[in-house]
Amino acid sequence: MTSHIQTIIDPPEDGHFRNGVATDGLIPSPTTLSLNLAINGRDHALDVEPRVTLLDALRERLHLTGTKKGCDQGQCGACTVHVDGERVLACLTLAAQVEGRSITTIEGLADEDGTLNAVQAAFLEQDAFQCGYCTPGQIMSAVACIREGHAGSDEEIREYMAGNLCRCGAYPNIVAAVRQAAQELRS
Amino acid sequence: MRDFSYLRADSVEAARNAAALPGAMLLAGGTTLIDLAKCGVAEPATVIDISHIEGLNAIDVTADRALIGALAKMSHVADHAEVKSLFPAVSEALWQAASAQLRNMATIGGNLMQRTRCPYFRDPANFPACNKRELGSGCSAIGGVTRGHAVLGVSEACIATYPGDLAVALVAFDAEVDLGERRLKVEDFFLAPGATAEQEHDIRPGEVITAIEIPGSAAARRSTYIKVRDRQSYEFAAASAAVGLELEGDGRTVRDIRVALGGVATKPWRARAVEDALKGKALDEATIREASELAMQGAVDHGANHYKIALAPRVIARAILKLGETA
User: Fold this and answer.
1) Is there a domain that residue B305 lies in?
2) Which H or E run contains B170?
3) Which residue in chain B is spatially nearest to A84 when comparing CA positions?
4) How many domains does chain B have?
5) pLDDT digit string (tens) for B102-121?
6) Which residues of B174-189 are buried (b: 16+ CB within 10 A; e: fewer)?
7) Does B3 touch chain A if contact means CB atoms closer than 8 Å?
8) CATH architecture of the domain formed by A31-108
9) Count of H-run helices and E-run strands, chain B
10) pLDDT reading at B208 higher than 70
11) How large is the ipTM?
């Protein structure tokens, strides 16, 4: 059975939900949710189980595979995306939770004509990756880091980029790329 | 992760009613709940998403108090200008916690509900014994690898460390948590394991955290949070200290001091013995170091975590000395 998200608007008077799925003391049962997600400026309709994370919805359902699955436990930053302009981890975010929010992934960063974002260009110029697996997460994190005003010094960049691990150890070049992009975006 | 049903609450009242359902768990930022659901530790029947409730994320700071809505994000509180100037230890505890991404997700109310990072607690498949998950099943940590485990507030049932940073600062400055019908000191909201390790918080079915309030004080204005850890960033504390200091007009005698510890205890740990030993005393390094040792009264180690008994007083002393230097 597919249903739209049940919003509990009225507090139940009898201890049960009137407009939710639970009545007569029954606990609501898992059901497929019909979601509409706004990703990179486009609306995407999809049906998912409530437990599906934003990361799995992006990769497995919408085939936006630029967002990477590293640890899937909130420890590596490879799945970093923006929700309402702020960087978050897609692996610890339920797809259902971000309905109505504006989601940006690495696929939505460059201009329509293919012109790269300043951070993407700086990562290329500074050779800020080796295998590249963590790079989409690094770039999404860096774009937000600069926008937050947390890229004022190398020390600050290292602190505020700490949530993105790079197993190849490209950290010096990543810091250089973020520093370069921050300077370009300020000027 | 087991599937669950998903309901979205549009008001605190709806959330309270839903929270009373059997097997219901509240979802705010999700950084603890979704993580523990993936580990097989949390198995909610129903997830009540409260993150869309309007008006619960306000941050209102005056010289008298900071009033922070339960859904305010850790990052927003950390960067708030008045929090930084009037409650610096709170801002410092927040920005040194987790990562920028996690701080953009995690809420202040959810942060108080953060569970321990004890690796035995987080791994039910390999370690069935955990009194925190199932009271009476035993403790796999005792006799296991204990480098990260607590030395204060431990019991024979549990030695899991409270992992958070914010609550350490909250406890130092007598913050309160608003549960609707009840209002508790944050210090009393957290429960040491004793014989009931499975209960970490004094919160009842149907209660929802709506806000925290931190009283303003001279000690809160002159405060800091020092966190020592195995790597420089994005790591839990080996030992941490929230300290606030108010000096007399002579600039060296202690009028008021607050000391709380993280990373070494089963709950955010107020070190009143240290405070009492320093009140009325003139600050000098020897006095500070001697008093800081009192924080470890009653400490019990389990081998590999013995180092924390030496480390924590040094972290306290470093924080007090840092504040003293700013006189």
Assistant:
1) yes
2) helix B166-172
3) B104
4) 2
5) 999 999 999 999 999 999 99
6) bbbbbbeeeeeebbeb
7) yes
8) Roll (3.10)
9) 13, 12
10) yes
11) 0.96
CATH 1.10.150.120 fits A118-186, yes or no: yes
Q: Which of A31, A80, A86, A140 to mutate to test the interface with B (most CBs of B within 10 A)?
A: A86
Mean of all residue pLDDT scores within chain A: 89
Q: What is the pLDDT of residue B21?
A: 85
Q: Cα A74 to chain center, whole Å?
A: 12
Residue B207 resides in a domain? no
- Between A19 and B283, the higher pLDDT residue: B283
How far is B150 from B159, CA to CA, in rounded Å?
Answer: 5
Would the CB atoms of A74 and B21 count as touching at under 8 Å?
no
User: What tokens does B159 get?
Assistant: 């030695």
Pick the last residue of a domain from B30, B49, B68. B49
How many CB pairs (< 8 A) connect A and B? 137
Q: Does the pLDDT of residue A150 top 80, yes or no?
A: yes
List all residues 6 or more positions away from B248 whose beta carbon is below 8 Å from its beta carbon.
B254, B255
Please give the backbone phi and psi of residue B276, each rounded to the nearest 5 degrees, phi first: -65, -35
Condensed to tens digits (0 to 9), the pLDDT of residues A87-138 reads 999 999 999 999 999 999 999 999 999 999 999 999 999 999 999 999 999 9
Chain A residues with CB inside 8 Å of B13's CB? 11
Domain that includes residue B308, residue range: 218-325
Give which of B96, B141, B107 is closest to B240, Cα–Cα: B96
Q: Give the HSE-up count for residue B51: Cα atoms under 13 Å, Cβ half-sphere.
A: 24
Domain of B42: which CATH number?
3.30.43
**Residues listed for chain A:** 187
Q: What is the pLDDT of residue B62?
A: 97
Q: What is the pTM of this model?
A: 0.94
With respect to residue B160, please indicate whether it lies within any of the assigned structural domains. no
**Per-residue pLDDT tens digits for B254-280:** 999 999 999 999 999 999 999 999 999
The domain locations on chain A are 31-108, 118-186
In a 10 Å sphere around its CB, with 0-12 CB exposed, 13-18 middle and 19+ buried, how is residue A7 labelled? middle
- Hey, which residues does B257 pair with through a beta bridge? B245
Q: How far apart are CA A134 and CA A118, in angstroms?
A: 18
